[in-house]
Write a structure and sequence with these properties.
Elements: E1 2-6, H1 12-22, H2 30-37, E2 45-50, E3 53-67, E4 70-82, H3 91-105, E5 110-113, E6 127-128, E7 131-138, E8 153-157, H4 159-162, H5 166-172, H6 185-195, E9 200-205, E10 211-222, E11 225-235, H7 238-249, E12 256-262, H8 268-271, E13 279-285, E14 288-291, H9 294-299, E15 309-314, E16 323-328, E17 331-335, E18 341-344, H10 345-352, H11 358-363, E19 367-369, H12 373-382
Parallel strand pairs: 4-5, 11-12, 15-18
Antiparallel strand pairs: 1-2, 2-3, 3-4, 5-14, 6-14, 7-12, 7-13, 8-9, 9-10, 10-11, 15-16, 16-17, 18-19
Length: 394
């Protein structure tokens, strides 16, 4: 019998050590633990016990998620692990069940996570809701086009000067873009501790004198020369982002510039004279979303201009979500009408932020079509102007 409960603060470190062991890592040293401890939220660190022994853990923190046309309260899930000798015995299932109950009770219609493996979480209703890419550029072979955005100034700051500025700049940057999530003080503290001392910060100031972008970067010396790893780059508009890239690609003693966790629609290859010098080396899933309360989650976003569509949602893990939903520009309601489309809740998550079109999921066999005319309507309803992007680990 697996018993799942919220852990006392005195049990937090044991849960972190179990999580690290599940990822084949050593237990946290005091420095690592100090970084993680500040991010843990009382009442949201769960432990699974078998015969009184801690055999699994999962935790969440309170956050918010930008969705098309608005924001929704969300539980940010991380630290999920099961002891190696207790896997495939229902431990993770019980952890997920208790965690979803807690998320609902807190009034959070969605849960979200970054997955260590792509095959684990779909069976609990999560789906890939955004993606990111990794880009590499040979610095000496890159030149910016004359018509690329330009303006403002870039200055380099030390950590002490950057600490109070970056959270405020982040709040100005793409807060309405689907996939954006909040970063609180414990997040920033853990971010700096994770990157260590060998990190640099550049800030962009616009023509109006307002700081509107930043880049966090550092050198990486290897067999292929010196790479500049761009860990985090955010801007309130295209000019701020382009100017930060121009600064990074103009740096001396650097062979390559590597941008990690970048949005799929960032127009970097359009800003340079030779687009082939912007090489996309990875495209990976970014944010996974679980619609824990389907009706509330669907009502939290807006929809495009199209005829309403009745969608039947299947959700074996949280069966009270199952049933028909009438989705249209005027909102979302439960519906007993004959469904035009049928899909599982992970496929609905792929539509939710606008990462995928309904027609793409139809072609993939993830949506069952009962009325062919509804496919084009669903494409227009769920479409967004910007590709969703999270860009924030947790």
């Amino acid at each position: 019998m697996i018993d799942v409960r919220a852990l006392a603060e005195s049990e937090f470190r044991a849960s972190q050590d179990l999580f690290r062991r599940a990822l084949l890592r050593k237990p946290a040293n005091d420095e690592d633990w100090a970084r993680v401890r500040g991010c843990l939220e009382a009442g949201r660190v769960l432990g699974a016990f078998d015969g009184g022994e801690l055999v699994g853990t999962a935790r969440a923190t309170s956050n918010e998620l930008a969705v098309p046309g608005g924001r929704v309260a969300a539980g940010a899930v991380t630290g999920v692990g099961v002891r190696a000798d207790r896997t495939r015995r229902g431990v993770l299932r019980e952890l997920m069940r208790v965690q979803f109950d807690d998320v609902r009770q807190r009034g959070e219609p969605v849960a979200m996570l970054h997955a260590s493996e792509a095959t684990i979480y779909e069976r609990f209703g999560y789906g890939v809701a955004s993606r990111h890419r990794k880009v590499e550029l040979e610095r000496a072979r890159v030149a910016f086009r004359d018509d690329a955005p330009r303006g403002g100034q870039v200055r380099v700051l030390d950590r002490k000067a950057a600490d109070p500025l970056l959270p405020e700049i982040y709040r100005r940057c793409a807060v309405d873009r689907a996939g954006w999530i909040g970063r609180d003080e414990p997040w920033w503290s853990g971010f700096w501790q994770y990157l260590g001392e060998d990190v640099l910060v550049a800030v962009h100031t616009g023509e109006d004198g307002v700081d509107d972008g930043f880049a966090v970067y550092g050198p990486n010396h290897g067999e292929r020369g010196t790479a500049l790893d761009v860990h985090d780059l955010k801007g309130a508009d295209a000019t701020a982002v382009a100017q930060l890239w121009r600064f990074l690609l103009g740096m001396d003693l650097v062979d390559r510039v590597v941008g990690h966790v970048r949005p799929l629609d960032e127009p970097l290859e359009w800003w340079v004279t030779d687009r082939r010098q912007c090489r996309v080396t990875e495209v990976e899933d970014d944010l996974w979303v679980r619609l824990v309360d389907v009706l509330a989650a669907l009502r939290a976003r807006t929809y495009g201009a199209a005829e309403p569509v009745v969608v039947e949602v299947r959700d074996a893990f949280l069966p009270d979500n199952e049933g028909g939903y009438r989705i249209g520009p005027d909102g979302v309601d439960r519906s007993a009408d004959e469904p035009q489309l049928r899909l599982d809740v992970p496929a609905l998550a792929a539509l939710y932020l606008g990462d995928q079109l309904a027609s793409t999921l139809v072609a993939a066999g993830r949506i069952e079509v009962r009325d062919p005319a509804a496919v084009a309507a669903a494409d227009r309803l769920f479409a967004t102007l910007e590709t969703p992007w999270c860009g924030t680990g947790f």
